[in-house]
Specification:
about 140 residues; Immunoglobulin-like; three-stranded antiparallel β-sheet; 1 helix; binds copper (II) ion
């Protein structure tokens, strides 16, 4: 009996703790632009699974609408285009940053210190995260 417990413990250590399939890091949401009620979201999404994860939508209760955008510069002109999905490669990451891919959060509802982002893959929630705006002092 004691031996089997020891073996089990060894097996768990060898495998490591199970990793969550999708992990978000370095999340930043810009303060809504006054009068325009619009924010941008930046983060890194890490996929710990062996399958590609397509984020096909993002929902936030603090905004009327969230779109996935990509900024591209053509002939010195910066443009944003809407992406149908955010592709997170198997055992890989996707980076959302200024000047690249980002979330566009539109029509902010007034007066919230927190932004909740719920990521959907083919209509199914796969990740939910809260961002708290930093205090001014
Ligand atoms: Cu945009």
């Amino acid at each position: 009996m004691r031996l089997s417990v020891a073996l089990l413990a060894t097996a768990l250590v060898a495998c490591g703790a199970p990793k969550p399939p999708l992990v978000i890091s370095e999340l930043e949401v810009t303060e809504p632009i006054p009068g325009r009620h619009m924010s941008a979201g930046f983060f890194i999404l890490r996929n710990n699974t062996a399958e590609v994860i397509n984020i096909t939508g993002v929902f936030s209760p603090q905004f009327a609408r969230v779109e996935i955008h990509e900024t591209t510069v053509t002939d010195g002109v910066s443009r944003m285009r809407r992406l149908d999905a955010l592709v997170v490669p198997a055992h890989g990451s996707v980076v959302l940053e200024r000047g690249g891919k980002h979330l566009m959060l539109m029509q902010a509802h007034e007066g919230s210190d927190v932004v909740t982002l719920q990521f959907l893959s083919a209509g199914t929630p796969v990740l939910s995260v809260d961002y708290v705006f930093p205090k001014d002092n």
